[in-house]
Design goal:
318 residues; alpha+beta; Beta Polymerase, domain 2
């Protein structure tokens, strides 16, 4: 477990419970971030800060969709960022109340680390908790916009490759991108009930006339993230349809060419079979020599080929 606490711009790594207790007793605002917290640590925080029991239970359970829960003295928001390597969703539990902001996560979050280094989060005594939480949620969902741009650019490249020569490699990658976008969208979509809970947000201690504006901005960013992921899914579906259409067209062209070749050789096969019969009336009526071979053998076969090619060309079977 790794943790740090930021109070008045001073960073303390792996703070002891006594440090948190002292800050709470002195009413000094802080931002506490804990990576991979244990249930015991969360229970200690609940005792020190007087967190709501339901909020404590929700904070212990990871694997939740995006959501907002409002309690008597604070709000719990389950948000998502992206990890630095795999760009997979990173679940972050954010509990905010007057003067205190707590973020809990199981894995590293580059967005929170960058936000701490920039010093953009400043909880204030008796301050608006949603205003303090706004830069945290905004930094998390901004990463999805960057992911959308990266995936959209990659789909541009795949589209050009599919138009040149579709193969199974592009098909597999497009399907993987679509699966990633769908998984992320399913995680984020439940958070769109944020708008329905705005009246409860207004009832939080420290809420001001600006609280609604910050809450609506968070909702808009979540809507944008869901919309971007939906657009990626729709584009993947379009590329998959294009891939199938081009593959079918290529198969149709090959089949048509094979049919044309078979049509050309069909009369030749008939002639070869007819003149190859060992009937006396046939074998005894043809004079021997090159003239008979060139006229009846080569000439008839060539004439069949020419006639078949002319007919196929007129019918545009080329």
């Amino acid at each position: 477990m790794r943790s740090w606490i930021d109070h008045a711009g001073e960073i303390v790594r792996d703070p002891s419970p006594s440090v948190i207790t002292q800050l709470v007793a002195a009413a000094q605002p802080f931002w506490l971030d804990i990576e991979d917290p244990t249930d015991e640590i969360i229970d200690q925080l609940a005792t020190s800060l007087g967190l709501h029991p339901v909020a404590v239970e929700n904070a212990k359970q990871f694997g939740q969709p995006a959501k907002l829960q409002v309690y008597r003295n604070g709000a719990l928001i389950v948000g998502f960022g992206l990890d630095a390597q795999l760009h997979e969703p990173v679940e972050v539990h954010c509990y905010c109340t007057t003067g205190y902001l707590i973020t809990l996560r199981r894995v590293p979050s580059p967005a929170l680390d960058a936000l701490r280094q920039a010093g953009s989060v400043h909880p204030q005594p008796e301050g608006d908790p949603i205003r303090a939480l706004h830069p945290v949620i905004s930094s998390l969902y901004t990463q999805f916009s960057a992911l959308y741009l990266r995936l959209d650019q990659r789909l541009d490249e795949l589209e050009q490759r599919v138009l040149r020569e579709p193969n199974d490699e592009e098909l597999a990658e497009i399907t993987a991108i679509r699966h990633r976008a769908a998984m992320s969208r399913r995680i984020l979509t439940p958070g769109r009930n944020f708008a329905a809970r705005l009246p409860l947000v207004q009832s939080l201690p420290g809420a001001t006339s600006e609280t609604r504006a910050y809450a609506e901005d968070i909702y808009d960013e979540l809507q944008q993230a869901v919309g971007d992921l939906t657009a990626i899914e729709e584009r993947c579906a379009g590329l998959l349809a294009l891939h199938a259409s081009l593959a079918s067209k290529h198969l149709a062209v090959v089949s048509r060419r094979l049919a044309a070749v078979a049509t050309i050789f069909l009369p030749i096969s008939f002639l070869a079979g007819f003149w190859g019969q060992n009937f006396n009336v046939l074998t005894g009526s043809i004079e021997k020599g090159w003239s008979a071979f060139l006229v009846l053998g080569v000439g008839l076969s060539t004439a069949c080929v020419v006639v078949a090619v002319v007919m196929l060309t007129r019918r545009r079977w080329n």
